[in-house]
# Entry
Amino acid sequence: MLYAIPSISAIAIKLVLLWRARQSLLITNQAFLAVFISLLALNISEMLLFTLNLKESGATILVMAHYIFGLFSILSVLGITLSITRQVFPIRTLATFGCLMAIFIAIPGLAIEGTKSIGYSYTRIQGPYYFVVQLALLVPFSASIGLLIHGALRSKSKEIKNKCSVLLICLTPSFVSLFIIVALMQFGFQINATVVISFSINILLFGLLYLEGKYHIYGLLSSLPGTKYNDSARILTQALFDPNMPLEKAKELMDIEKTRYTLELTRGNQSEAARILGVSRPTICRRIKLIESQYTKARKL
# Structure
């Protein structure tokens, strides 16, 4: 029962997130809903494998279901990635591929020949075409990582870059875990990876929650040391809570940070930034000089 705790915690987290984001998931992005439902089914199947005393046939069905739900989870993540990066790709193609692979996995003797007990749970016995399932899991996951890296580094849209960065950070533990597990299996290690995957999935869900909120994403990015959002958060925190800082100095720091962000939003267009902020263009120019002065001082430290 101890091994089922990660699965139970992941199920609880999913139910809470589904309830909190129920309207936006149903209306704005059905790929989010698909990944939540797939991951929920994945955790339920692994929890049953931990807790039930099954015959070999029943365990085999649950293991196959576990792989199918895992596949749909990864394809749903790819769907979210395509949506975030605004890539034109028919989602029906992903759904069709998922259904065909589900049928392939469910056919006895092809990918999975059976199961065997490993004490606390059950693990699959590889069939002759198990490598097809491994590729079906790794290729879409790798494609998601590649698209997110490209979006985080090369996208001209600030919103897309931020969303790609957050999802990339939250997907990395799952990707690394999956890659290591598949590699170890190729060398003949008998591994039940459900506990590791359950914990890494919780990190992914945390990222999805932040993507769902309009401003949550900046809260997460500001907590990462070395990022400009972290620097801005540190400056604003000092301006708000340093009792020895005069009000005019605190206001100046806040004005500078607001101007910095607005200039990034307008891609350096000073006239547009002045219009958004409701100030004159000379005021923007003065604040730019202050921003450059701050940058010069920071480089000298």
